[in-house]
Amino acid sequence: MILHKNSHKVVGLIVGSILLFFSFVASVIYGYTDTSLALSIDAFRNFDGSNEHIIIQSVRLPRAIIAAVVGGSLAISGLWMQALTKNPLASPGVFGINAGASFFVVVAVSFFSVTSLQTYTWLAFAGAAVAAFAVYFIGSLGREGLTPMKLTLAGAAFAAMFSSMTQGLLVINETALDQVLFWLAGSVQGRSLSIVYTVLPYISVAWIASMFIGRKINLLAMGDDVATSLGVKTGLVKIITALIIILLAGGAVAIAGPIVFIGIVIPHVARYFVGSDHRWLAPYCGILGAILLLAADIGARYVIMPQEVPVGVMTAVIGTPFFIYIARRGFHGK
């Protein structure tokens, strides 16, 4: 790790927060419609109803907020997944949470003709929760209880099952494909803040819990027997961690669709800076995840301008080489 002293880690958080602020501002300013910092400030101080002011207030600002919330949530959920499963490739995508959310949305569109984005949000949240509970339940069966290997296998199995059923429904219903294709690609475009407000209470609880559970996770990482001897109620800690994952990953997928790789990449980047102490990793993941998704969303606006690439495609382009690197080298960020 680069930052050895706690004072250096605090400075790193401050620097990361500053970078997050500038990334947020850049997300509000840059895009197909030419705007500037002065114009953006004026849109809030002296709103005049012009096209630029409307875009800044109604499109760019909500988009930046959503990208920051989703990016941070996905990164922290990926951190806890990797900690719980001891699998460096664990993430909402790998463990079937994205696939469960997508399946619920496609079922609703195919059989009940649902078209409301607000309804998509609740369905995706429900699907993510069902998938996560199913994976956790199957992974806990047997004499040994919850083990990293069983949890990983259960996650891979459910991810494959939900993905296969989703693809099957889309093949036989082209109308459903047209309606949900952009959502399935993962995007922060066209989302309203009302969607964020729907799931923000749940995500906020998970954020707060993440800032306090790090010490328990540190002890759990030493092994269940050692953690138990030190007074940790390992079963309770695992259940709380699983609930945090469901709230963060489910909420993020409900808002923006199945955006991949942030939950894999960011925890490893955070470990590179601060090591394996989860008390520091959680806030670093939140900040770095938000920065990454904001940067990816800005880039998505320029790749094929005037059209836009879904930000899920951009994160896949960024994350795929890193995923291959981790898989080949067994890199744990230590």
From TrEMBL:
Location of the protein in the cell: Cell membrane
Name of the gene this protein is made from: yfiZ_1
Protein name, as recorded: Siderophore transport system permease protein YfiZ
PANTHER family: FERRIC ENTEROBACTIN TRANSPORT SYSTEM PERMEASE PROTEIN, SIDEROPHORE TRANSPORT SYSTEM PERMEASE PROTEIN YFIZ-RELATED
Stored Pfam families: FecCD (PF01032)
Protein family according to the UniProt entry: Belongs to the binding-protein-dependent transport system permease family. FecCD subfamily.
Source organism (scientific name): Sutcliffiella rhizosphaerae
Keywords: Cell membrane, Membrane, Transmembrane, Transmembrane helix, Transport
Major localisation: membrane
Signal peptide positions on this chain: none
Membrane topology type: Multi-pass membrane protein
